[in-house]
Amino acid sequence: MRNTRTYSDFSFAFIPHPRTKDISVSIDEDAVKQSIRNLILTKNYERPFRSQIGSQIYGLLFEPVSPMTSILMKRTIIDCINNFEPRAILLDTDVIYDGDNNVNVNITFKIRNTESPISISIILERTRWAIQKYKYLN
After folding, report:
1. Res. 117 pLDDT band, cuts 50 70 90
2. Hey, where are the domains in the chain?
3. What fold, for 8-137?
4. DSSP annotation of 20
5. Which of 3, 100, 105, 131 gives 122 a disulfide partner, CB atoms 3.0 to 4.6 angstroms apart?
6. DSSP states of 97-115 as a string?
């Protein structure tokens, strides 16, 4: 079954469209990917008047590496996507710690009314600088 509904959002690259000179737009798959990434990387109380939107992923990022921390991170991501992104149906989530103080998050989902699975990878860095960098870029 083909998705007849088009999902769109403005692109956070803020690159103007070459012809219209307006902000470019992310459509369908790209819009949902961007939304999921932003939801996971948003801390609670970061959005004015919508304090419940976001996740506690940064709080868990600095906990000692253990199987329980990995499970809590996975559960946090699942809850965040299920609660705040109605366009996505979550299929799988993997949280993998690597040796460089980074956490690789692989998310597989599908957009409602479509059949093909979509995967995104997010690398979370366990440094304070990375959090500050993200904060100032957005």
Report:
1. very high
2. 8-137
3. Nuclear Transport Factor 2; Chain: A, (3.10.450)
4. T
5. 105
6. E-TTSEEEEEEEEEETT--
